[in-house]
Amino acid sequence: MSDFVPLPNMPPPNLSKGIVGWAKTNLFSSPINSIISVVGLYFVITFLTPIIDWVFISAVWTGEGNAACVEATGACWIFIGDRLPIFFYGIYPPEQIWRLDICFVLLALSFGPQFFEGIPYKKYLAIFSLTGLPLIGYFLISGGSFGLESVPTEKWGGLSLTLLLAYVGIVAALPIGVVLALGRRSKMPVIRTFCVCFIEMWRGVPLISVLFMASVMLPLFLPDGMNFDKLLRALIGITMFQSAYMAEVIRGGLQAIPGGQYEAASAMGLGYWKQMRLVILPQALKLVIPGIVNTFIALFKDTTLVLIIGLLDVLALVQSAIEDPSWKAVETEGYFFAALCFWLFCFSMSRYSQKLERKLHTGHKR
Amino acid sequence: MADTTTDQQPTSKTAIWNDPKFRSIAFQVIAGIAIVWFFWVIFNNTLTNMEKRGITTGFAFLDSTSGYSILMSLIDYDSTQTYGRTFLVGLTNTILISVLGIFFATIVGFIMGIARLSNNWLISKVATVYVETLRNVPLLLQILFWYNAVLASLPQPRASYAMGDYIFLNKRGLYVPAPVPEAGFNLVVVAFVVAIVGVIVMTRWARKRQEDTGQQFPTFMAGLGLLVGLPGVIFLIMGMPMSLDYPSLQGFNFRGGVPVIPELMALLWALTFYTATFIAEIVRAGILGVSHGQSEAAHALGLRNGPTLRLVVIPQAMRIIIPPLTSQYLNLAKNSSLATAIGYPDLVAVFMGTTLNQTGQAVEIVGMTMAVYLVMSLVISGFMNWFNKRMALVER
Q1: Could you tell me the CATH number of the domain that includes residue A280?
Q2: Of A46, A86, B107, B394, which sees the most CB atoms within 10 A?
Q3: Of A320, A324, A302, whose CA–CA distance to A312 is shortest?
């Protein structure tokens, strides 16, 4: 008598494996779904073909000047290539651009490692990027000391100005936001009322009116003989606006800390500031890192508004480049490039914040 | 001998500056003084600065003649009217764009949010690509793109895209027929109001009847019939008291009809599709937030797919959706101020732009504009809070 030998497993039916099976479950699972899929596919193809053709196939990649693009039906990418330095650095003096480059490299070195795991000293890099880097950046970019040539703020521009506005906005708004959030949860009525009014006022008005206020009203507020330049005024407006949003994000983190933590810290005999500094804020800030990244994304997109008060950020330079009569009909190329710049930054940051959210969703939740 | 200390509070051994109550009061007094002092300094500086520049304070400028014309106005306006009138023109234009934007963004957002959850791979991927692309590109850039790259490349009025003889699209804008009410149309409006009241009464009655007897009444179909039927019948009885004013090409431009200026189109388009990406994410999170057990339980009770969605899933999802939806509506209203970049005459462009440049009354004008947005924010969030409370009452 031989042992029982089971038959080998049958392969799955042809219709439920491979590409056919995938299409059957995901595209043609029911008659209505099949119709939607076919119609949708038709629209996607008719919509995508001209775009792909315009961006890649009929586009002009090499050549000189507007003449090379006159005949083309596709995008004129040599326009972007021609203007790339201006889009990046604005009208910063070309022989001084290495100073901006150093800042970019330092920024990448201190922020890049935050995106990866297993890199040592990440904490110190983060602290450096919030304290040392702004100082170094200030002295490097504006010059005027250490033998560096002074560059007035009117010459700052391009993508570097966009990054600078967003970066200063977030770094300056963080501490103010922490103070406001603590103030809003304070038990002292005067402090609480002031913080609530401050936060709600900035959150209730559009950024554009804040920028108008900073550029038109701020000079009136200052005592005689004291004057800020346009960039600094815009930065003050952005910081005030952003700190209100930051305060609300941080308040969310403070509320998520269980009351037992406050009580335990009090029981240890810690005073208010020590409680906050040693027990509450480290936990709360860690919880709200994704929220902070999200406000940073919003701020990064909002920096484009400075073009309305006359600062030359990347969008303003694109706008003036496409109006330049030596290039014709390059609006779409210009906007496409600017959109790509913003999209790359914002999309990667939003992915980063989603990843963080998943990673941090471990304890602390009630 | 023992009663010497019972009546009195035990004398505190700590110094007065270590007493938490005293410290709190002292701290608040200092902070209060600092705040008042700060505003006092600013106030004084502003007064001196304005005096030096020869700017008179006060709102008297609102009554002087503006002397400039505005591209589009919902209320009667021309350049002989006052600066105060320009404020109203800007305000109505801002409200118009906000209401239209909220309406369309809600529709697009809900469709895209549900499409992203579709079990059809293609549909959900299309919705995902839409959301992830437009969400990460600045709104101002999108507005400029639609205005400068798309709408500016439309043909001249003589070569308009036309839909029959009724609708025309060209560089100057979109022209649609304008309804012109004639004598007797008021009765149709009255009938419509009566129909609305009737629907409300009917809904109450139907709910009461269902609670008493368990019998259901086709409220939705009956209500729809009432809303469409009653005004329709009156409209026919009165002999159709309404004519359409068609746009027609005269000279170099169109006359008649309702012109929709390209600034409005570009702004509305960009605001709708930008805000809709955020609404789509909110809707998706709301639907995913209703636990799967809820729909399983509804199925187990014998409800079919339609009633399950309508009676179980959507009411619970709405509770998650409404608070963030409110803040998106607020954002849309505030973002409508970007109109100033393309010259749509909203409050910021007209009042804080042209009027401010002409009069130089920075403090009053910026103050008034900010106050409008603050009030608008408070009104929208107040309404949504009320609505949210009503929805939350569904919960036990």
Answers
A1: 1.10.3720.10
A2: A86
A3: A320
Each residue's pLDDT tens digit, B210-234: 888 888 888 888 888 888 888 888 8
Residue A12, SS3 per DSSP: coil
pLDDT digits 0-9 by tens, B255-271: 777 788 888 999 999 99
Instruction: Please give, rounded to a whole number of angstroms, the shortest distance from the CA of B351 to a CA of chain A.
Output: 11
- pTM (two decimals): 0.85
| Domain tally, chain A | 2
As for how many domains chain B has, the answer is 2
Say if B317 falls within a structural domain: yes
Helix (H, G, I), strand (E, B), or coil: what is residue A224? coil
Nearest one of A162, A24, A237 to B140, comparing CA atoms: A162
Name the residue among B381, B365, B329 with its Cα closest to residue B90.
B365
Closest-CA distance of chain B to residue A116, Å? 22
CA distance A180 to A247: 6
Instruction: Tell me the two tokens of residue A255.
Output: 């509320």
Q: Poorest-confidence range of A234-238, A334-338, B360-364, B384-388?
A: B384-388
Strands laid side by side in the B167-170 sheet: B161-163, B167-170, B173-176, B258-260
Check pLDDT > 70 for residue B11. Answer: no
Three-class secondary structure of residue B67 per DSSP: coil
Residues A202 and A340 in one domain: yes
Sign of CA dihedral B252, B256, B257, B263: positive
What ipTM is given for this predicted complex?
0.85
- C-beta atoms of A221 and B126 within 8 A: no
Crossing angle of helices A289-302 and A158-184, rounded to 10°: 130
Nearest CA-CA partner of B141 in A330, A288, A314: A314
Query: Using one digit for the tens of pLDDT, what is the confidence trace for A85-103?
Result: 888 887 777 777 778 788 8
How many angstroms separate the Cα of A170 from the Cα of each of A21, A175, A245, A294, B334?
49, 9, 11, 11, 21
On whether the CB atoms of residues B177 and B257 are closer than 8 A, the answer is: yes
- Partner residue opposite B132 with nearest CB, options A206, A212, A347: A347
Q: How close A10 comes to chain B (CA, Å)?
A: 29
CB atoms inside a 10 Å sphere around CB A115: 13
Contacts of B27 in chain A (CB under 8 A): 188, 191
Residue A104 in domain: no
- Read off the pLDDT of each residue in B186-194 and give the average, rounded to a whole number: 86
Residue of A nearest to B348 (CA): A209
Half-sphere exposure of residue B336: CA atoms within 13 angstroms, side-chain side: 29
Yes or no, beta carbons of B49 and A220 under 8 Å apart: yes
In this structure, the answer to whether residues A41 and A175 fall within a common structural domain is: no
φ and ψ at A131, to 5 degrees?
Answer: -120, -60
Domain that holds residue A245: 84-92+151-360
Residue A109 has pLDDT above 90, yes or no: no
| pLDDT tens-place string over residues A144-160 | 777 677 777 777 888 88
Asked if the model's pLDDT at residue A306 lies above 60, the reply is yes
Q: Are B328 and B275 within 8 A, CB to CB?
A: yes
Tokens of B137: 């590109």
Side chain identity, residue A76: C
Q: Is the dihedral of CA B296, B301, B305, B309 positive or negative?
A: negative
pLDDT band, very low/low/confident/very high, at B2 (cuts 50, 70, 90): very low
E strand or H helix that includes residue B245: strand B242-245
